[in-house]
Design a protein that fits this description.
Radius of gyration: 35 Å
Order of helices and strands: HHHHEEEEEEE
Helix content: 25-40%
Shape: elongated
Number of strands: 7
Distance between the termini: 97 Å
Structural class: alpha+beta
Strand content: 25-35%
Largest sheet: 4 strands, antiparallel
CATH topology: Nuclear Transport Factor 2, Chain: A
Strand order of the largest sheet: 2-3-6-7
Amino acid sequence: MTMVDARSALGVLALVCALALTGCTPDGPAEPTPSPTPASQTPTETAQEKQERLDYAAAEKSYRIFRAEFNRVMRRGGASTPTSLMNRTAGGSYLKEFADIIEAYRGLKLHTVGSEAIVFVRPDGYSPSDIELEVCEDSRSIQEVDSSGKRTRAGEIRTASLQVKRTTTGWKVWSGQGRKVSECS
């Protein structure tokens, strides 16, 4: 076989391969294969639902931070004024009532021992500027101790309906109404 015959044979082979490959491709653009769709898809969260979820989380966080700080101050024997953390997370009548309590503990030389359990925090109403929370606090393991070391009073279980307001500095527990209960439900 000569050089020209070899080139011709390679050219014919290349042409046959090209035609064979062309015949195997679809006419026009390929359509994507649809991916399988689950039987029940979770609906996506709307912008409003997302904002509401984030606001509830921020309101609950303020409440939990306030309660932890309040209980820390009570274990140390009260204070003459609310701490900066208490001021950042509460305002209105809620802060005023708790400021009175920590001031009284300081004046009476009382402190607490034990810890509080927040049993639940539930959303109970929403607007972009106000959130209602329903909470239950179990402070039965907390005891009040006087300056001589005598335990004077045990804690209790309380539920409360709280109003948490959006302020220029974030969400603050603003007001509330609570009552003693026998159990959180």
